[in-house]
Amino acid sequence: MVELHEVKNNMKSRLFIGIDIGGTKISGGLADETGKIIVRDKIATPLDAKPSEILFIVTKLINSLSSGSKIVAKNIAGIGIGVPGIVNTKKGKIVATPNVDLAGFDLVKKITKKFRTRVSIGNDVNLGLLGEYWFGAGRRVKNIIGLFPGTGVGGAAIVDGKLLLGAKGAATEFGHLIIDTHGPECSCGNRGCLEAIAGRWAIERDIRAAVKAGRESALIDICKSDLAVIKSKALKEALARKDELTTEVMEKAADALGFACVSLRHAFDPALIIFGGGIIEACAGFILPMVRKIVDDDPFFAKVSRCKIVESELKDDAVILGAVALAQEGLGIKAGEIKANPSVCMVLKDDSVLIDGKTYNRGVCIRVNCKVKKRPKKFSEEKEISEQELRKFCKKKPEVFIIAYRDALPVLSEQAQIFLKEKKINAKILPLSPAIDLYNETTSKKAILVI
Q1: What DSSP designation does 340 have?
Q2: For residue range 327-337, what is the model confidence (pLDDT) as tens digits?
Q3: What span, in angstroms and rounded, lies between the C-alpha atoms of 411 and 387?
């Protein structure tokens, strides 16, 4: 985990924590307004954990993310939490959770009380797609379907820029679309669900049954004869070895995902379908070409432009960043639209400056294009700030140029003052902390020189 120094209490940049609660691990990240994750951490979820244990782990993780970066609690503007199952996001209520014991547990109220900040909660797959929408593969796309084959198959939809939640928060359970009415029984009680064909548990079931019936498979060697759990990486290796059984079962899964996409396209007319989850991370090169061909061959959309089908960009960070986006939206912030600053610009306790996850002692400039440049030694040795130096750092024509100083008040040369006046650049010379605060709050084209 990244170790940073303590941040001064006057730092006004808004920071957010995103938490992803899963059956095997609970992971989280501390991020700024732009979706840049500053520090990550994760803790294993105990087997059959009680709600009080999960609350303890989430609390410990939030404290770890804060203390790991030495961020003071008052600078955490919001916390977002992703939970597997049915979640009423508007009311902050957990309705049903198949893999963790949280149904009916008021996690939002308890976390709010502990950290005295706004807490938002949502279904983990919904938040995974929300993360992709704001910070990943779905940027600037208003209509998206998300399919996430992992142990099961998660689903989510963004329609006209908003998550589709349904009346009780249970919409878009695409893993339980019925693909084959005579298919295998699903964990939900129906038969032939997408998850019962294309989820990893279903793939494991079919491979184990075939091996038990006498089929040979490279997976026996890859998994050292233990097929109780066949991980996605093992499936990838078996496909690379051109294992006949694995190829056959994975083709069946890819077909099911492809035809599910055809149905989803008919229902939602998305511009983009994003695939994520463990199986996709391992086997996208095998699965997605087959899915694209099935979707492209649909005669109904023959005269309509293609629906783009892509892999998740954010991968394991998708739910965390979706939780961050949910926390921002809870405060009325349009997540992902703040792009002007580098990820973080803040003053640390030792008067160094944190910019984009890196610490600088002094002599650094952030240009209008957000590029961070160290101040050349020849300038730092001069007694005054020259026109030549200002021209170097004002190439992109900032409207505001901030000069932050620690000790002595800097002096602008006469030519430097003329240059700023001619270019109509509003110069602000301030002590370090107020200067950083001004930089973070200013929405105009800006640059800052820290000396």
Answers
A1: S
A2: 999 888 877 66
A3: 12
